[in-house]
């Protein structure tokens, strides 16, 4: 019997035997289900509750959706509306500024003003001109109206404190003297009051500029036009100059603050022009608006978060037409959110009322439709009491009638099954007894456990193997004779059979009742029900202690024999070298040919002996790992030099792909050399003439080095790739193309890598080549 297949066959058999209980389970299920249904609410109530729950669920989703949609819609509408308000306020301010521009432009063109400045020595505070200025300011909208000569000195002013003062440093004078109509804002140097300056050059009829007329508008007029009435008390309005500084606002904590830090150049301009007196301009936390101010062309509105007040706000910004100012309005969004909540509340009330009405209608409708279930319930109750001859009669012409017919068929079949159940139980019992006797006759130890590993059954062979009787084994766990392996081994075992529900194959060391340790080949198969439910395990063991001892003896014999053969082979090689060099006389061509064959055969014998010795040391665990700092590139290149003859003979092209950062490694040089020798030798042997062999050394992660040896040779057939690392195995195409070889090289490489904590794998396609990957750990000590 195949030991690997036996656990699976046993599991299938036990699963079949377990199915004999299904008929009884069906009967018990119907009875328990009938009783259970009595303790629960009726089906019609369930239907109504489910529908109400679904309506409530989707109603809640609808309410949330409506709330979100309304909030977004109202937000969009609010932004659009707010933008229109900003535009209205901008137009209002534009009208105020245009009126002041017209005022100063008109006044500067009066003959009285021109004639006054044309005098050779005009008298300051000319009474006629002063009265003229006062008469023009009918609404008293201006803090001061004053006239400056070409030097910037004030000669006439409605505010007498201005007379004699030189304001030539002010931008509104410098630009106006060049012919521009200027609008500016600043804190007065003399009055210490903030205002808006409108300046216009005074020109003679022939266009010569002879002075500048300035009207300083009161800031209260701008304040009245700045804030719209629709703003809530929490909202705010502000006017910002071309430098991003708030020059007027109803929120005093923002006054004379900039929307972004001012550059040193701007700070110097403000200081030189005394625009804000001695006030230090500090930046605000309005980075987003600060960016928009430099880019805005007309007007815009958007929603943003005010970190200072920790709330969402709608911000509206507009550039005042033909003026170096921006108007900014802000309004909290709480009012708009409240509207969305109110609409969502109305929707939720409507859904609740609709759900209540639908629930009442559904209850009445479902009660009528589900009357046939009462009949089914009564018949099921009788069946639960053991009366399997009951018949249900339903004449509805729908699925309930079909259900009644199916129910009657099931009852009839259940009655027949129950009648024959006793005979089937005896038949299954006999089958199980036969199966138990078959297991007892198996020479290999067999145990059956539950899902927790407690032994339910153990055959006689298990007694012989462990020394424990069947009575001692039943009810205990295999740890009674186990616990000889690392804890990681048992963790992997349980993960395989219990979590993954897969078969486990491996070798395990256990201890007999007398304390003697033994090595077993272990196979465990999960016992699964039809739907994959786990209900136990079956385990087969085979004592391989004697076989392992035999293998050890064999390896020791091979090691001794190989050592004994090396001495005569060394002598043979020594004498053949003497003969080939002509040290004992010249040889003719025929003798040279025979001598070459002797040398070739001797070399193959030496290679075979070296491989056998390596295998012997691997199997006996006699390889000593002595890591030291080495250079992988030097080892690889030295092996290529050693194998120069076959490389040149086959005209192979060698490609080196060395990573300089990956060359140095802490490893055993002798073992690394064996790895390189076997991988490179295989590539040379199984690559045709003029082929390409690529040797790569690269870093893999932090503490590993990846070695790759690739060729475009014969490749490995797909059907034989699984055996490529087996001892003495050679693929069919390899034997055909290269008869010489012993099939030990890859086995040795894999064994060495496993010993030092490395790994190896390959990719291959027949007639296209192979690539072998070997990962070396970079040992720190």
Automatic annotation (TrEMBL):
<dbReference type="InterPro" id="IPR000014">
    <property type="entry name" value="PAS"/>
</dbReference>
<dbReference type="InterPro" id="IPR033479">
    <property type="entry name" value="dCache_1"/>
</dbReference>
<dbReference type="Pfam" id="PF13426">
    <property type="entry name" value="PAS_9"/>
</dbReference>
<dbReference type="Pfam" id="PF02743">
    <property type="entry name" value="dCache_1"/>
</dbReference>
<dbReference type="InterPro" id="IPR003594">
    <property type="entry name" value="HATPase_dom"/>
</dbReference>
<dbReference type="GO" id="GO:0005524">
    <property type="term" value="F:ATP binding"/>
</dbReference>
<dbReference type="GO" id="GO:0005886">
    <property type="term" value="C:plasma membrane"/>
</dbReference>
<dbReference type="Pfam" id="PF00512">
    <property type="entry name" value="HisKA"/>
</dbReference>
<dbReference type="GO" id="GO:0000156">
    <property type="term" value="F:phosphorelay response regulator activity"/>
</dbReference>
<keyword id="KW-0597">Phosphoprotein</keyword>
<dbReference type="InterPro" id="IPR029151">
    <property type="entry name" value="Sensor-like_sf"/>
</dbReference>
<feature type="domain" description="HAMP">
    <location>
        <begin position="367"/>
        <end position="419"/>
    </location>
</feature>
<feature type="domain" description="PAC">
    <location>
        <begin position="504"/>
        <end position="556"/>
    </location>
</feature>
<dbReference type="InterPro" id="IPR005467">
    <property type="entry name" value="His_kinase_dom"/>
</dbReference>
<dbReference type="InterPro" id="IPR036097">
    <property type="entry name" value="HisK_dim/P_sf"/>
</dbReference>
<keyword id="KW-0902">Two-component regulatory system</keyword>
<dbReference type="Pfam" id="PF02518">
    <property type="entry name" value="HATPase_c"/>
</dbReference>
<keyword id="KW-0418">Kinase</keyword>
<dbReference type="InterPro" id="IPR003661">
    <property type="entry name" value="HisK_dim/P_dom"/>
</dbReference>
<dbReference type="Pfam" id="PF00672">
    <property type="entry name" value="HAMP"/>
</dbReference>
<dbReference type="InterPro" id="IPR000700">
    <property type="entry name" value="PAS-assoc_C"/>
</dbReference>
<keyword id="KW-0067">ATP-binding</keyword>
<feature type="domain" description="PAS">
    <location>
        <begin position="431"/>
        <end position="475"/>
    </location>
</feature>
<keyword id="KW-0812">Transmembrane</keyword>
<feature type="domain" description="Histidine kinase">
    <location>
        <begin position="560"/>
        <end position="780"/>
    </location>
</feature>
<keyword id="KW-1133">Transmembrane helix</keyword>
<dbReference type="InterPro" id="IPR035965">
    <property type="entry name" value="PAS-like_dom_sf"/>
</dbReference>
<dbReference type="InterPro" id="IPR050351">
    <property type="entry name" value="BphY/WalK/GraS-like"/>
</dbReference>
<feature type="transmembrane region" description="Helical">
    <location>
        <begin position="346"/>
        <end position="367"/>
    </location>
</feature>
<dbReference type="GO" id="GO:0007234">
    <property type="term" value="P:osmosensory signaling via phosphorelay pathway"/>
</dbReference>
<protein>
    <recommendedName>
        <fullName>histidine kinase</fullName>
        <ecNumber>2.7.13.3</ecNumber>
    </recommendedName>
</protein>
<keyword id="KW-0472">Membrane</keyword>
<dbReference type="GO" id="GO:0000155">
    <property type="term" value="F:phosphorelay sensor kinase activity"/>
</dbReference>
<keyword id="KW-1003">Cell membrane</keyword>
<feature type="transmembrane region" description="Helical">
    <location>
        <begin position="47"/>
        <end position="70"/>
    </location>
</feature>
<dbReference type="InterPro" id="IPR003660">
    <property type="entry name" value="HAMP_dom"/>
</dbReference>
<dbReference type="InterPro" id="IPR004358">
    <property type="entry name" value="Sig_transdc_His_kin-like_C"/>
</dbReference>
<dbReference type="GO" id="GO:0030295">
    <property type="term" value="F:protein kinase activator activity"/>
</dbReference>
<keyword id="KW-0808">Transferase</keyword>
<keyword id="KW-0547">Nucleotide-binding</keyword>
<dbReference type="InterPro" id="IPR001610">
    <property type="entry name" value="PAC"/>
</dbReference>
<dbReference type="InterPro" id="IPR036890">
    <property type="entry name" value="HATPase_C_sf"/>
</dbReference>
